[in-house]
Design brief:
299 residues, alpha/beta, 8-stranded mixed sheet, 8 strands, 12% strand, binds guanosine-5'-diphosphate, GTP-binding
């Protein structure tokens, strides 16, 4: 299926790295276990997961029955243990409505596309959705969100390039409340180069939302591009600090060999992971299913 295909490059990379490390006639001595651990680290799974997998292989070393399929089963099992606690779909719970989802992330991470995917997902679940084009810094971002809104069949509240983002979000929230909209998804600027400016803007947007509804934003979702590998960690740290991230969506897991970074991020930060992006269209968002993902990664 789509998810397995999406993860095929990650699982291929993993299997390339693991080939020949276990099997008949191979002694699982300390050196081999060390090589196994290094091979796992090289697949972006993170050192902690790699160490645990190697330790489990080491425990079973006298049974001498471990082949590559057996190793993959151990890998899948350990990955699933890490992913299960963070698997958490976005839920629309706010009362009064709207439930506000603030979406943050660096430019190019797939933020706009993910907003469209979420709009589609919530519409399918029979919620009414409105988008707010809060990245007022880039005219292209406003136009792009409008295009996606049209495709998803949901209204987009937008202003002129350079308009005050917090003011726009204020207007959008008032409109959403007046119209009884269930979910308001707010796009934000992603200029991490201007960290102070971004921090101030996000803080202001959050302040304005908080004035309209003390519980808003109900979710602050960080969109991460899996292809950046370990650089995802510095983005998580930056946005956790500036925006108070409450959960993650990882994109571009199709066509990257670095899908293991999802596991490393889960292990390291314990933040909920809501969904994963596996393509460029509106329907290419997969709910985060720990066991299914673990199997897709382990191949
Ligand atoms: P933004 O600048 O963060 O808003 O990023 P965009 O949503 O414009 O996405 C940047 C590029 O990444 C576009 O070409 C998207 O089609 C592409 N993209 C976004 N999500 C995915 C995904 O899950 N898979 C793939 N293959 N491409 C994606």
């Amino acid at each position: 299926d789509r998810l397995r295909r999406g993860f095929s490059r990650t699982s291929e990379r993993l299997n390339e790295n693991l080939t020949g490390l276990v099997g008949p006639g191979i002694e699982l001595d300390e050196r081999t276990l060390g090589e196994l651990e290094e091979a796992l680290i090289a697949t972006d799974l993170g050192p902690a997961a790699a160490a645990r997998i190697a330790a489990r292989v080491g425990e079973g070393r006298y049974s001498k029955t471990l082949d590559e399929a057996g190793l993959r089963a151990i890998v899948a099992d350990e990955i699933a243990k890490i992913l299960r606690p963070v698997a958490k779909p976005l839920e629309i719970t706010a009362f009064p409505r709207p439930h506000v989802v603030l979406v943050v992330g660096v430019n190019g991470s797939g933020k706009t596309t993910t907003i469209a995917k979420l709009a589609h997902l919530f519409t399918e679940q029979d919620y009414s959705v409105m988008l707010a084009a809060g990245d007022t810094f880039r005219a292209a971002a406003i136009a792009q969100l409008q295009t996606w809104g049209d495709r998803a069949g949901v209204p987009v509240v937008s202003g002129k390039e350079g308009a005050d983002a917090a003011g726009l979000v204020f207007d959008a929230h008032q409109r959403a409340r007046a119209e009884g909209v269930d979910v308001l998804i707010v796009d934000t600027a992603g200029r991490l180069q201007n960290k102070q400016g971004l921090m101030d803007e996000l803080a202001k947007v959050k302040r304005v939302l908080g004035k309209l509804d003390a519980a808003a934003p109900h979710d602050v979702v960080l969109v991460l591009d899996a292809t950046v590998g370990q650089n995802a960690f510095s983005q998580i740290e930056a946005f956790r600090e500036t925006a108070g991230v409450t959960g993650l969506v990882m994109t571009k897991l199709d066509g990257t060999a670095r899908g293991g970074v999802l596991v490393a991020a889960a292990e390291r930060y314990g933040l909920p992971i809501h969904a994963v992006g596996v393509g460029e269209t509106m329907t290419d968002l997969r709910p985060f299913d720990a066991d299914e993902l673990a199997r897709a990664i382990a191949g």
